[in-house]
């Protein structure tokens, strides 16, 4: 086992949200196996009990809902009391909402923003004072292929991930001079309970040819279309280990392909309509 130390010889400390399942669970497991210490947050931490027993005091389990700012602040206090510092913040907790933009209810939309966007902000406000004081740290912002692209059925999920990406662009530039790094994590389809945990909006017949076709298509995808969560976690750890991590990290060929296609459409629109764009300058 290779233990990871910072420049002062401290064990590297992770704070991971959504650590009980899927990508977050793999990240937790791999960080522990590489010798790091982890503060693991989730609403119900019991799925990590065995891992905690196996790794003794190096895994701190903290029941915390990311929607509850005070609970997140308390979790950061407990992390500092146990480990003394935070080196990597993995803003990973999140879930999906599937359905046409028009189909999703106000309650469903506010709920998914509450976790995927306002939860991320709660974690940032609680952890950045620690990282700024240290003048070091790495924030991993949980996005997705849908942080740069969208297709029928994922409009609201994409809205949350686009929000995370927009604020992360600014955040990265704000905290870089303070010694803090930011990487936006963009997995493609990954084999986790994510699809089982999807919230689904009520169906309107008019969206059968678009949204329901996509839903059917996703349901029929072969297992080979999904990356293993362990590989996604390993990719994230490669970026964390790098002295020059990227601002954006696409994980999985499907993620890169989807984002490239979306970026090309944007470039085509910019180029094709440049005469109108420039025409309003005068
Ligand atoms: N799987 C994919 O295809 C895929 C693709 C791109 C991006 N992603 C992103 O990757 C991240 C992890 O997803 P996953 O695939 O690993 O899904 P997952 O297996 O469903 O895990 C989600 C985790 O988030 C936690 N969580 C959800 N709501 C929470 C809340 N309000 N407060 C605290 N924790 C909460 C869950 O724990 P509790 O329910 O116990 O709280 C769970 O540990 C998400 O941000 C997702 O958008 C996933």
Describe this structure in words.
With 282 residues, this protein is α/β, with parallel strands linked by helices. The protein has one domain (13-279): NAD(P)-binding Rossmann-like Domain (Rossmann fold, 3-Layer(aba) Sandwich), CATH 3.40.50.720. The protein has 9 helices and 11 strands. The protein has helices at residues 22-33, 49-55, 69-83, 106-134, 155-175, 208-219, 229-241, 253-272, 274-279, and strands at residues 13-17, 37-42, 59-63, 88-91, 97-98, 137-142, 180-187, 190-191, 199-200, 227-228, 248-251. The strands form 3 sheets. It has a 7-stranded parallel beta sheet, sandwiched between helices. Strands 5-9 form a two-stranded parallel ribbon. Strands 8-10 form a two-stranded parallel sheet. Helix 3 packs parallel to helix 4. The longest helix is centred in the middle third of the chain and has 29 residues, at 106-134. The protein is globular and about 55 Å long. It starts with 12 loop residues before the first strand and ends with a helix. The mean pLDDT is 96. It binds NADP nicotinamide-adenine-dinucleotide phosphate. Belongs to the short-chain dehydrogenases/reductases (SDR) family.
């Amino acid at each position: 086992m290779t233990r990871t130390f910072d420049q002062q010889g401290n064990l590297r400390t992770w704070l991971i949200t959504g650590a009980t399942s899927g990508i977050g669970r793999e990240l937790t497991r791999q960080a522990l196996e590489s010798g790091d210490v982890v503060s693991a947050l989730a609403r119900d931490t019991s799925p990590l009990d065995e891992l905690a027993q196996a790794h003794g005091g190096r895994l701190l389990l903290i029941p915390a809902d990311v929607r509850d700012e005070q609970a997140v602040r308390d979790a950061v206090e407990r992390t500092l009391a146990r480990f003394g510092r935070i080196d990597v913040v993995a803003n990973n907790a999140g879930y999906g909402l599937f359905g046409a933009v028009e189909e999703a209810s106000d309650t469903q939309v506010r709920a998914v923003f509450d976790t995927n966007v306002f939860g991320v902000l709660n974690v940032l406000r609680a952890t950045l004072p620690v990282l700024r004081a240290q003048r070091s740290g790495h924030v991993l912002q949980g996005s997705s292929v849908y942080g740069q692209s969208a297709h029928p059925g994922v409009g609201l999920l994409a809205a949350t991930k686009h929000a995370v990406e927009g604020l992360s662009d600014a955040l990265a530039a704000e905290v870089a001079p303070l010694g803090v790094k930011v990487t936006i994590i963009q997995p493609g389809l990954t084999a986790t309970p994510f699809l089982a945990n999807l919230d689904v909006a009520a169906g309107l017949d008019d969206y059968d040819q678009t949204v329901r076709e996509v839903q059917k298509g996703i349901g029929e995808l072969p297992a080979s279309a999904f990356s293993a969560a362990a590989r996604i976690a390993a990719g994230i750890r490669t970026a964390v280990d790098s002295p020059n991590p990227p601002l954006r990290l696409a994980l999985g060929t499907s993620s890169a392909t989807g984002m490239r296609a979306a970026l090309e459409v944007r470039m085509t629109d910019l180029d094709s309509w440049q005469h109108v764009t420039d025409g309003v300058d005068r």
